Amino acid sequence: MTNRRAYYNDLLSLAREKRVLHGVNTASFGLAEVRKIYKAEGIRLDYWPLPYKIKALYMCADGDSSVAVQKALPYEPKLFALVHELKHHYRDQEVIGSGMLLCGDYNANELIEKGAEVFAAEFIYPEAEFADDLRAVGIKVWTEDGVVNLKRNCKAKVSYKYLCKRLERLALIPPGKFNGVKFQKLEERMFGVPIHRRRTSRS
Ligand SMILES: [Zn+2]
After folding, report:
1. pTM over cut 0.85
2. CATH numeric code, 2-124
3. For the segment 20-43, what is each residue's pLDDT rounded down to a tens digit?
4. Which residues pair with 46 in a beta bridge?
5. Could you tell me the residue ranges of all domains in the chain?
């Protein structure tokens, strides 16, 4: 267990270090910015069709690195997946050798995969920064509506799943409190369907 903690702590430091190196600003960090980082790191980005359960994959051979990501992913999960792959690029090339890591299947390479999740979460929105921003919001008891408002006012491009995990980590909600809540649907009930999704609406 200690080793796992140490492994995660090292990845948290790496995430902070790479944020500084690439001049990442939480509020303006998005897909365009992550593509720039890929370019600077010499990682090719592909959009091959991937099996449904695979979010992304990292591949390297003879010093050549590439990532493929599931095209159909919504914006925030896609951003998260691309930063997750960055961790494999920084830390897992030796493990892979000439080969690939398929991401999305957490039974295989459990520690490597969880580590990539820890890295991506910190890289996109460092926990300390999140906690500071949350203190400024001043909410003591979290409700489903409160989470929707948090998401709408959140400066970072993160998903509902991300926000709930963070609230759990900071012990502001019990684990799994909002499991099964359809936040996107709730947001639409509270604020209406966003214009870009209206065309496909069947109502
Ligand atoms: Zn992975």
Report:
1. yes
2. 1.10.10
3. 999 999 999 999 999 999 999 999
4. 68
5. 2-124, 127-194
Cα of 59 vs centre of ligand 1, distance in Å, is 11
Rg (CA), the chain: 18
What is the predicted pLDDT for the residue at 142?
96
39 CA distance to ligand 1 middle (Å): 19
What is the 3-state secondary structure of 138-162?
Answer: CCCCCCHHHHHHHHHHCCCCCCHHH
Report the separation in Å between the CA atom of 58 and the middle of ligand 1, taken as the mean of its atom positions: 7
Closest CA to 152 of 104, 110, 186: 186
pLDDT value, residue 201? 45
**φ, ψ of residue 72 in degrees (nearest 5):** -75, -5
CA distances from 151 to 81, 129, 195 (A): 19, 15, 18
- Residue linked to tokens 């695979």: 54
3-state secondary structure of 41: helix
In this predicted structure, the answer to whether residue 67 has a pLDDT above a threshold of 60 is: yes
